[in-house]
């Protein structure tokens, strides 16, 4: 998924390390720092749950692809030793296969399999969810 | 040369009188332009102004002439600041920009704030959706924006809009996005009825693009950079997106219930909201949102991840829109 957590955290460092111009002081910089803090808060969630969520998503997609033999789907296998980047690359391959499966399912008018795919989408979105606390108005 | 010196040189030339600049300060005013507030002193007159200048990179690539002409069109009809000057070639400021009147003393809320309007939410909601209906009632012919932009045929509004944002996703996507792609296919397979009328759309009509006085009055409707001509239900669908409900699913934009917003809009516009058409435009707007966040991710990474506004757009809002899309896909399927 993009951006990745390392990209976000490196970016936060860089956005604070680059000297601000005088006209950025005040309201603009206050807002900027607030958003950086928010990104860090969400980054903590991703560090806690992100990899487990991605592994779970990969398993769910693999299961669905494997349970649709009528479509002759090739289920991508992980190619590298487990790491966040390898899991992400595997996820991309699985998602591409899922897109192809869904297109084939739509062409056949296979409502039962489509319902399972739509339910999978909801589960995937739920598994990647970042929880934003309501902020003061 | 510093920006305030550049501004002074430009305004001195434009107004044919010496101008001094005071209080130049960048403000967080939208993610697609650099926005600054300042006072221009000319003779005994102090003019509070806003500068909107093209950045090196932005959340959305939009045409500043469109935004400027949208302000010209809406000024006097809706609460918007008066546009002052547009310089497409950048003049003394190096990059394209425009100037507009500054409205002081108002509050612009974050989309992530809870109960941003407090006890004044109903009053602001009434004014907000009445204003959107007023815009939808306006015939664009002869207006500055209507003279600038092409008007799609009523039965092509949906296709023009969907083609644009679907292409943006295909262009900017770095990681495969099966959910939004499914939504795009669904929208192409089940087009909405033709637009009742082709109207001027704000393009980003939501709670974070209004300025209010903290006491129930809207002072300004801002950020017209996505203005275009199309089916006015598009704006309504964007305002109804759950992303903007401020954690209150019982309201739209954290203001009033959706049914009340529709009634206000219909009364002001003289148009009717077809539920099936609105459902299409709501799913479309979730696609449009995801296209914007996908573009933000490309821009964020392209700039070295230094703009946190692009970061939050690319990350939190993108995942939130996947949730919204997945939910709407299931409900759209049930009703189709």
CATH T-level fold name of the largest domain in chain B: Aminoglycoside 3'-phosphotransferase, Chain: A, domain 2
**From the helix content, strand content and strand pairing of chain A, which structural class follows?**
mainly alpha
Q: Mean of the pLDDT scores of chain B?
A: 93
Largest sheet of chain A: none
Approximate strand percentage of chain B:
15-25%
Physical arrangement of strands within the biggest beta sheet of chain B: 1-2-3-5-4
Total number of helical segments of chain A?
4
Report helical residue fraction of chain A.
55-70%
Total strands of chain B: the figure is 10
Number of helices of chain B: 10
Instruction: Give the class-level CATH name of the largest domain in chain B.
Output: Alpha Beta
Estimate the global geometry of chain B from the Cα principal axes.
Answer: globular
Counted up, domains of chain B total: 2
Oligomeric state of this protein = heterodimer
Count of folded domains of chain A: 1
Radius of gyration of chain A over all CA atoms, rounded? 20 Å
Structural class of chain B: alpha+beta
Largest interface: pair, residues per side: A-B, 53 and 53 residues
Computed Rg of chain B? 20 Å
Q: Low-confidence parts of chain A lasting 5 or more residues at pLDDT below 50?
A: none
């Amino acid at each position: 998924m993009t951006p990745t957590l390392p990209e976000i955290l490196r970016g936060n460092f860089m956005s604070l390390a680059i000297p601000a111009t005088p006209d950025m002081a005040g309201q603009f910089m206050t807002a900027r720092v607030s958003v950086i803090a928010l990104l860090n808060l969400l980054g903590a969630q991703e560090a806690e749950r992100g990899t487990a969520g991605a592994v779970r998503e990969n398993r769910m997609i693999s299961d669905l692809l494997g349970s649709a033999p009528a479509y002759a789907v090739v289920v991508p296998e992980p190619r590298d030793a487990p790491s966040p980047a390898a899991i992400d690359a595997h996820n991309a391959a699985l998602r591409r296969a899922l897109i192809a499966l869904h297109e084939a399912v739509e062409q056949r008018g296979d409502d039962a399999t489509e319902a399972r795919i739509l339910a999978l989408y909801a589960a995937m979105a739920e598994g990647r969810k970042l929880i934003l606390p309501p902020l003061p108005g | 040369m510093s920006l305030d010196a550049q501004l002074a040189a430009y305004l001195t030339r434009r107004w044919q009188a010496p101008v001094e600049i005071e209080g130049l300060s960048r403000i967080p005013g939208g993610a697609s332009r650099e926005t600054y507030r300042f006072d221009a002193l000319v003779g005994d007159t102090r003019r509070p102004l806003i500068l909107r200048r093209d950045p090196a990179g932005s959340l959305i690539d939009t045409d500043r002439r469109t935004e400027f002409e949208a302000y010209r069109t809406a000024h006097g009809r809706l609460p918007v600041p008066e546009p002052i000057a547009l310089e497409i070639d950048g003049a003394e400021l190096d990059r394209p920009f425009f100037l507009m009147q500054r409205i002081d003393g108002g509050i612009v809320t974050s989309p992530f704030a809870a109960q941003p309007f407090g006890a004044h939410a109903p009053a602001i909601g009434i004014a907000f959706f009445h204003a959107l209906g007023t815009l939808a009632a306006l015939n664009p012919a002869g207006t500055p924006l209507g003279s600038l932009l092409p008007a799609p045929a009523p039965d092509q509004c949906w296709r023009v809009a969907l083609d644009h944002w679907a292409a943006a996703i295909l262009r900017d996507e770095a990681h495969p996005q099966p959910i939004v792609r499914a939504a795009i296919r669904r929208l192409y397979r089940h087009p909405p009825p033709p637009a009742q009328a082709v109207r001027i759309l704000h393009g980003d009509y939501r709670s974070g693009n209004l300025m209010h006085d903290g006491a129930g009055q809207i002072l300004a409707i801002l950020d017209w950079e996505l203005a275009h001509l199309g089916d006015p239900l598009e704006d309504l669908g964007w305002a109804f997106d759950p992303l903007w409900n401020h954690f209150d699913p019982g309201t739209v934009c954290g203001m009033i219930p959706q049914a009340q917003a529709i009634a206000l809009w219909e009364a002001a516009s003289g148009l009717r909201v077809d539920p099936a058409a609105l459902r299409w435009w709501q799913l479309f707007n979730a696609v449009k949102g995801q296209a914007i966040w996908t573009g933000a991710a490309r821009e964020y990474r392209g700039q070295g991840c230094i703009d946190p506004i692009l970061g939050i757009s690319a990350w939190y809002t993108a995942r939130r829109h996947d949730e919204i899309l997945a939910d709407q896909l299931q409900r759209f399927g049930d009703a189709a």
